[in-house]
Amino acid sequence: MNKGKVYIVGAGPGDPKLITVYGRECIEKADVIIYDRLVSEQLLTYAREGTMLLYCGKEPGKHGNIQQQIHQWLVEHALQGKTVVRLKGGDPFMFGRGGEEAEHLRAYGIPYEIVPGVTAGVAAPAYAGIPVTHRNYAGGVTFIAGHLSGERDRIRWDALSEATNTIVFYMGMANIGYICEQLQRHGKDGETPVAVIEWATTTEQRTVVGTLQTIVDIVHEKQFSSPAIIVVGDVVRLHDQLKWVEEKW
After folding, report:
1. Cβ burial, residue 151 (10 Å; 0-12/13-18/19+)
2. CATH number where 126 lies
3. What spatial distance separates the first Cα and last Cα of the chain, rounded to whole Å?
4. 35 SS3 class
5. Could you give the CA distance from residue 248 to residue 99 in angstroms, rounded to a whole number?
6. 111 lies in the same domain as 145
7. Is the CA virtual torsion 205, 201, 147, 122 positive or negative?
8. Which residues participate in catalysis according to the annotation?
9. Which domain holds residue 152?
10. For the CA atoms of 9, 13, 15, 19, what is the dihedral angle to 10 degrees?
11. What are the pLDDT digits (tens) for 2-37?
């Protein structure tokens, strides 16, 4: 049996123009594309006529057995000799479960490539005029999965609170109150700036800025929801000065 090949491709954070050149090439030659909820449908127009499109979107908190179905599709179509693209929002290896999918393919001896993508933790702040590092504000950045399901005790809130680095939370909207509470409880100044960026890099992008003490009330008032990125740190102070895309759109 001639095995096909799987390309685990990062589609970027939302703006279809942020796909990489190689990522687009993979889409163009695919026999099967298995794509996520947050992937821009414009990217699917690059596919050849007759390409099989399989939607595997996961709603927040409703993942169920979808990941098992994805694994099954990857193996099934690759074993039929097809070129398969697993098209994932952002970057496959940044909270994208791309590592799990690669492990599954390796277990079946199926060849694969990882095609990195622009991750929302960098792109969302950039589109809001917030550099995640800056010589005068932050010498580093920490990325955290904010959904916290079963993981709350694993986060070193004391270390996060003491660090001067920028902190970027993915998938944290449902727990934003808990996040702000824990950072303050472990020593982070309540006046630390916080930004929340909703639907980043799309024409629906919105950004609000507050502090650890005020941001929860602000996002509730403005009715922010997922998908959104939460940025904590002094770099947020640059938003008003450097914001550009929301003025453009």
Report:
1. exposed
2. 3.30.950.10
3. 51
4. strand
5. 36
6. no
7. negative
8. 36, 58, 171
9. 120-248
10. -30
11. 889 999 999 999 999 999 999 999 999 999 999 999
